[in-house]
Amino acid sequence: MSELQPFVITAAPLDPVPLVQFVLTPSDGAVVTFAGVARDNFGGRPTAFLSYEAYAEMAIGVLEQLADEARTRWPIGRVAVHHRVGRLEIGETAVLVVVAAPHRQAAFAAAEYIMDRIKEVAPIWKQEHWADGAVEWRE
Fold it and tell me: CB neighbours (10 Å) of residue 122?
């Protein structure tokens, strides 16, 4: 069995349990897990499924950088971010952001910051496959 990597781009389904176990240390009193899940609509328009593409090597470096940025802003411990690529059916998890910290406020703030920044700067792209058969790249 290989050692868990904290920053991963993968086509495999995501599981938060190993990430929580990875980030948690005896000094932490909080672990925040955010799961971004494929939903059946966007802006009221029905979605059939999503697909994601990424420049994986660059994206992993960006995820590491975002975790480092969060550590400079909040007193947090370990961070793990795993992001799916490929086709995702409705209800499947697209991204996991897991942050441990001594206190919950820092863990919540850092997890939100990291997720917001992933959407802004990571080389990961989402394509909506609409129920009517149309396809559209989303920011």
Answer: 23
